[in-house]
Amino acid sequence: MKAEAIKKIAVIGAGNMGHQIALACALAGFGTSCCDASREQLQKAEGFMKSYLPGRVAKGKLKEEEARAAAERLTFTESLEEAAREADFVIEAVTENLELKREIFARLDGIAPAHAVLATNSSFFVSSLLAGSTRRPALVCNMHFFNPALVMKCVEVVQGPHTAPETAALAMDLARKLGKEPVLLKKEIYGFLVNRILARISEEALFLLDTGVASAEDIDRAVVNALGHPMGPFRLMDLTGIDLSYHIAMERYRETGNPLDKPSPTVVEKYVRGEWGRKTGRGFYDYSEK
Ligand code: 3HC
Fold this sequence. Notes:
This protein is of the alpha/beta class and 290 residues long. It folds into two domains: 3-185, NAD(P)-binding Rossmann-like Domain (Rossmann fold, 3-Layer(aba) Sandwich), CATH 3.40.50.720; 194-280, N-(1-d-carboxylethyl)-l-norvaline Dehydrogenase, domain 2 (Orthogonal Bundle), CATH 1.10.1040.10. It is 47% helix and 13% strand. The protein has twelve helices and eight strands. The protein has helices at 18-27, 39-58, 64-73, 80-84, 98-111, 128-131, 165-177, 194-210, 216-227, 233-240, 242-256, 265-273; strands spanning 8-12, 31-35, 74-77, 89-92, 117-120, 140-145, 154-158, 181-185. It has an eight-stranded mixed β-sheet with strand order 3-2-1-4-5-6-7-8, sandwiched between helices. Helix 1 links the parallel strand 1 (8-12) and strand 2. The longest helix is centred in the N-terminal third of the chain and has 20 residues, at 39-58. It is globular and about 55 Å long. The structure holds 3-hydroxybutanoyl-coenzyme A (3HC). The site of 3-hydroxybutanoyl-coenzyme A has 16 residues, from helix 8 and helix 10.
């Protein structure tokens, strides 16, 4: 199957990543259904679409008819059945809970057409942890987008031992149709490419903060102005979610048993306090005014 043959995409999860992945699919011309068990989350996703598209038109980045067509192509539903029953390609982007993902993959396997690819946007769970919940392991892979998904060009496609090469090729092809520059991982590895590199940067930044060497603001300022990164590691953690940083480190620790892999004291403190970054209005920075 080629990406041109994909008529319908289902994006499961309308959170931080899912709502933008779904909109990217609709903007690229695919009939897209965005599904979430939370009505509130769906309303937020729809609200984002309704302000984002006119904003793009006002900026001259999109024609009015393109914006209208994208909005018409994107539907929101609480029903997994409705989202996936005609889908040729499913991208799961629910919270990083392995049991939940397994359950969703098993349900999707019973709902989606037999030819449909089931991809996960997980930041760290390799798809071989999910493939066994389905009767179509050859059609299961990782397709990992970056935040904000409408902007960031990279998509990591991971071909697990169970993934058919054609499935990985289709995911790469689809990513290109979404205007992305995908990269292919020929082996499963924890953290894939980008989060492995990013983790080293964040760990070092947290060490420098935790040991009182410099403030979060100054560490961010240094990384932006000395290394040319678009934002420093603390602003980036606020964008991607400190809850995610916590879970990534905990998962790594569970895997290795190495205490050095545990989340840093600052991350634990912020996680427990519910200061998860932009999504909660406060993280390393305060967003309550915005
Ligand atoms: N949603 C959608 N679009 C957004 C956006 C958002 N949240 N924030 C910014 N944009 C768009 C703007 O509309 C603008 O688009 P245009 O140029 O086409 O008009 C463009 O991005 C630039 O926006 P701004 O001028 O307002 O702001 P910046 O130039 O500061 O860019 C940024 C913002 C794109 C977020 C930039 O700071 C950046 O690239 N930061 C690094 C992000 C990053 O590293 N992401 C990867 C995180 S790791 C990850 O996601 C993995 C996961 O597993 C944790």
